[in-house]
Amino acid sequence: MTELPVEHGLLFAAALFCIGLVGVLIRRNLIFILMSLELMLNATAFVFVLGGALHGNADGQVMFLMILTLAAAEIAVALALVVHLYRRYRSLDADRLEAMKG
Amino acid sequence: MTTLFYLTMLIALLAALQVVRGLNAVHALLHLIVALLALALLFFLLGAPFAAALEVIVYAGAIMVLMVFVIMMLNQGDAAVEQERAWLDGASWRGPGLLCALLLLELGYLLLASDTGSAGWRPVAAAEVGRALYGPYLLLVELASMLLLAALVGAWHLARALKNRRGEES
Amino acid sequence: MAEFAVIIFRALALLLALVLSAALLTWAERRLLGLWQDRYGPNRVGPFGLLQVVADMLKLLGKQEFVPPFADKPVFILAPAIAMSTMLLAFAVIPFAPGFPLADLNLGLLFFLAMSSLAVYAILLGGYASNNKYALLGSLRSAAQVLSYEVFMGLALLGVVLQAGSFSLGQIVEAQRELWFCIPQFLAMVLFFIAGIAESHRLPFDLPEAEHELTAGFHTEYSGMKFGMFFVGEYLGVILISSLMTTLFFGGWLGPVLPPWLWFLLKTLFFVLLFVLLRAALPRPRYDQLMAFGWKCLLPLALLNLTVTALVLL
């Protein structure tokens, strides 16, 4: 087990989060948006585990487990929706989804 | 050991950059898996081996497999790569890139300026996490299972609607 | 520094021994299949056909390293590498003798589960990179099968973990000094064995890669050494599941008279022979029968086993 200056760990998580954020903002392909979203989730999970290790209790890993559950649930439903959208619009472009009805 | 730490962080950041910049969906997904494995190694180095194992088994081993399944089912091919290249030109990078760089600078300043204590670094083994889950956090486990049940029912319903629609069309 | 060199040496020795055993297993399987199918196996090349292994290796190495022009080249080359490396990595935690696991991790069993989760990618990427509809279908089916049976495998293993009180494989072997776990965890043993067969996609669960189904499934486009790596990866999977069976349920290296590593070898060999016997004896179920069997029959049994174990132990 290594001791790391906490600021470096938090900076790393912030950098990972911002990279994911750039991906969500820029990409038009739905799959890429989902992947960048996963990066953001992982960055926050890292912060939780870092906090748990820093204070020496299991709470960080418990929260990590919850984030994992959340990510799994979200991905399952999101991918089912993506498949639906693909069959409907024949394209994975997020900009195609601009009509409210139909 | 600390060099290993910083090296792994660098690998994770580079892989994440490749995910965001990538043109081919499967290649970008592979880079994402590399980033997740790097994160798992970081968890292991921080003394959270249970989190590391779970990250590989559940995230890299199941959730990413789901995404590979969908990408393969949609099976877009080379036309998609060309389209991505057309969408991702220099102009579209500038605005959001600037905003996110500003955000990163802000976050960096806040995190470096604040005072976090560094007492109590301790590796936390799996048994302790288990005891926490079955002790004070029992309700959280039940809520997580309800969330998963909701996701299961939702995904099943959406898949059934697909099958029904395909039945009507053919 | 010297300790580091010792670890590297032991790791290399283990890797060499594993690849050689996987190669020998190809010969052993063909002879045994011949024995059980009332014919001779390879018996021309060398004494008892042992040099058949060398002949096969030379043939595979000598073939042209062909990547189909329509295939996704980096992923095409990556897939067999993943197949072999994850299987080899999983052997790092298996205790061959007291003090001999290469890395007695506290989470040894979870490490094995992690490696088998990563092995799914070999199938998926192999089928995708081939850019061939039969390969894609075969790989999707195979990946779905492996993923489903991985769930049951994990649940069955949890019974063992409850009984032993630790994820570490060395400690699980130590906890079997009085009684091998095959007796209290009989259901878990059967479940783990069935799930293990599905994991290494051997008969009777090898529908997605059988030669007559979907033109050999996800390794349709592979030839030469890359196919050899898939092949060796599959046999390594067989040896891995067999050694895990002995470690988790049959006492590992525990035994009265012989040296520990010999006991481990004998027990593992027994299970490897069992794998080959199953290949010779059983027919292949259809894909939907396979998945229905898994989810409707094995999952409730695994949960039942876990519940009963927890109730008895608490």
Automatic annotation (TrEMBL), chain A:
Keywords: Cell membrane, Membrane, NAD, Quinone, Translocase, Transmembrane, Transmembrane helix, Transport, Ubiquinone. It is found in: Cell membrane; Membrane. GO terms for molecular function: NADH dehydrogenase (quinone) (non-electrogenic) activity; quinone binding. Gene3D superfamilies: 1.10.287.3510. Its EC number is 7.1.1.-. GO terms for cellular component: NADH dehydrogenase complex; plasma membrane. The keyword Membrane applies. This is NADH-quinone oxidoreductase subunit K. It comes from Marinobacterium nitratireducens. The lineage of its organism: Bacteria, Pseudomonadati, Pseudomonadota, Gammaproteobacteria, Oceanospirillales. The gene is nuoK.
From TrEMBL, chain B:
It comes from the Bacteria. Its EC number is 7.1.1.-. Pfam families: Oxidored_q3. The keyword Cell wall biogenesis/degradation does not apply. One of its GO terms (cellular component) is plasma membrane. The chain crosses the membrane at residues 6-23, 30-50, 56-74, 95-114, 134-156. GO terms for molecular function: NADH dehydrogenase (ubiquinone) activity; quinone binding. The keyword Cell wall biogenesis/degradation does not apply. It is a multi-pass membrane protein. It is found in: Cell membrane. Composed of 13 different subunits. Subunits NuoA, H, J, K, L, M, N constitute the membrane sector of the complex. Belongs to the complex I subunit 6 family. This is NADH-quinone oxidoreductase subunit J. It comes from Marinobacterium nitratireducens. The gene is nuoJ.
From TrEMBL, chain C:
Keywords: Cell membrane, Membrane, NAD, Quinone, Translocase, Transmembrane, Transmembrane helix, Ubiquinone. One of its GO terms (cellular component) is plasma membrane. It is a multi-pass membrane protein. GO terms for molecular function: NADH dehydrogenase activity; oxidoreductase activity, acting on NAD(P)H, quinone or similar compound as acceptor; quinone binding. It catalyses: a quinone + NADH + 5 H(+)(in) = a quinol + NAD(+) + 4 H(+)(out). InterPro entries: NADH_UbQ_OxRdtase_su1/FPO, NADH_UbQ_OxRdtase_su1_CS. It is found in: Cell membrane; Membrane. The chain crosses the membrane at residues 74-97, 109-130, 151-173, 179-198, 235-255, 261-281, 293-313. GO terms for biological process: aerobic respiration. Its EC number is 7.1.1.-. It comes from the Bacteria. It holds the Pfam family NADHdh. PROSITE patterns: COMPLEX1_ND1_1, COMPLEX1_ND1_2. NCBIfam families: PRK06076.1-1, PRK06076.1-2. Belongs to the complex I subunit 1 family. NDH-1 is composed of 14 different subunits. Subunits NuoA, H, J, K, L, M, N constitute the membrane sector of the complex. HAMAP family: NDH1_NuoH. NDH-1 shuttles electrons from NADH, via FMN and iron-sulfur (Fe-S) centers, to quinones in the respiratory chain. The immediate electron acceptor for the enzyme in this species is believed to be ubiquinone. Couples the redox reaction to proton translocation (for every two electrons transferred, four hydrogen ions are translocated across the cytoplasmic membrane), and thus conserves the redox energy in a proton gradient. This subunit may bind ubiquinone. This is NADH-quinone oxidoreductase subunit H. It comes from Marinobacterium nitratireducens. The lineage of its organism: Bacteria, Pseudomonadati, Pseudomonadota, Gammaproteobacteria, Oceanospirillales. The gene is nuoH.
